[in-house]
Write a structure and sequence with these properties.
CATH superfamily: Isochorismatase-like
Order of helices and strands: EEEHHEHHEHEHEHEH
Helix content: 25-40%
Number of domains: 1
Number of strands: 8
Oligomer: single chain
Strand order of the largest sheet: 5-4-3-6-7-8
């Protein structure tokens, strides 16, 4: 995480615009993005179906293992600030009808062109399997959204309903994969009217190049891209300002 933690008095929070790190403008333009009382944290697909080190892992995203401890620490900071944490996971009916037993997800055809054959891919995210267990900490105060069946955390889940029930107007995203599910979720959130923040140091992509590209696109078109420590600092500053 960034060293600019809440109350450190060293530097103002920063954000990224097309990989360029800049001080967060103080003119209020991002006021509705950094509004802790109306924000929820959304953690995407940090479960064993992507993160397990088992050779049977059905959809490996090994770079995601790098951010597990950082996400846990960030979530503790968010909870301490009174910000709800929502864990979203992919989950398909055990029969397989939601995917390989019906109309398969497009990634099952396209992604292996680059990464090669994925052993055990048919087991990915099946309900009741060990692959749907979260690798990150889940606190009793947290909410869980399950049933994600394609690339966006909003489809076909009740995430939008939950956010509106919570009175949320801004979402802070972390998780995997930056160039896939995080990117799709960010665009859907923005299209639905939410302000979007992406924790730059708490997402991972297919590789570093695609991760950087996804973050750059989001920073230009819809999102406030910040390191997690800077985001915590911005929330703290917003609270102090009332």
């Amino acid at each position: 995480m960034s060293e600019n933690l809440p109350g450190d008095g060293i530097a103002p929070p920063h954000h990224y615009v097309y990989e360029e790190r800049r001080p967060l403008p103080g003119d209020g333009r991002y006021q509705d993005f950094v509004a802790p009382a109306r924000t929820a944290v959304i953690s995407i697909d940090m479960h064993e179906g992507h993160l397990s080190e088992s050779p049977e892992c059905p959809c490996p995203a090994p770079r995601g293992r790098q951010i597990v401890s950082g996400i846990d620490a960030f979530h503790r900071g968010a909870r301490a600030a009174g910000i709800p944490v929502i864990h979203v996971r992919s989950e398909l009916r055990a029969s397989g009808v939601d995917d390989v037993g019906g109309v398969p997800s497009a990634w099952r055809t396209t992604f292996p062109e680059w990464v090669g054959e994925i052993p055990n891919a048919a087991e990915h995210a099946l309900a009741g399997s060990r692959w749907t267990a979260f690798a990150t900490e889940v606190d009793p105060r947290d909410e869980i959204v399950t049933g994600k069946k394609r690339l966006s955390a909003f489809y076909p889940t009740d995430l939008d309903f939950l956010l509106r029930q919570l009175g949320v107007t801004a979402v802070a995203l972390n998780g995997i994969m930056a160039d896939c599910c995080v990117l799709n979720t960010a665009f859907d959130a923005s299209n639905l009217g939410y302000r979007v923040i992406v924790a730059r140091d708490l997402v991972r992509g297919t590789d570093e190049a695609l991760e950087r590209a996804a973050l750059s696109m989001m920073s230009l078109h819809l999102a406030l891209v910040m390191d997690a420590g800077d985001l915590l600092a911005a929330w703290a500053a917003a609270d102090r300002a009332g």
